[in-house]
# Entry
Amino acid sequence: MAENCIFCKIANGEIPAATLYEDEDFRVILDLNPAALGHALILPKAHAANLFELPDETAAKALVLAKKISGKLKDGLHADGLNVVQNNGEAAGQTVFHFHMHLIPRYADDTVDVKWKPGTLTDADREKILNLF
Ligand code: 5GP
Ligand code: ZN
# Structure
């Protein structure tokens, strides 16, 4: 556990939260300020600030868990779709620096905004990025 990390405290049961699922590695809770009905957060119990710090084994389990919980939310709440959102770093919108995945059920008439303005992939940008790999 990291000191003064709210999600460490929630994930490990020190601070109560509405829990949808728990196992030895994860707790899944309802977001306190949901974007839409059923907005849930997957929290690993072991602290990692972001995806870059997350152990491979936890990362692999997290996506399997996201699939399982997302299906239950979508079916149970009769959602029309669902976004999996995961922010890393302040520039990317992360506000709590303990890795988490947002599961956001989507409804045809909802007001959730997960959008960006499409840009243009230039030849120079494409080459710069391809050269990294
Ligand atoms: P981020 O912006 O870091 O990707 O997402 C943080 C999320 O955590 C936000 O959606 C916010 O509403 C939620 N959140 C922050 N503090 C608490 C809390 O104490 N309890 C719960 N259940 N959710 C929280
Ligand atoms: Zn933490």
Summary: The longest helix spans residues 56-76. Helices lie at 6-11, 56-76, 123-130.
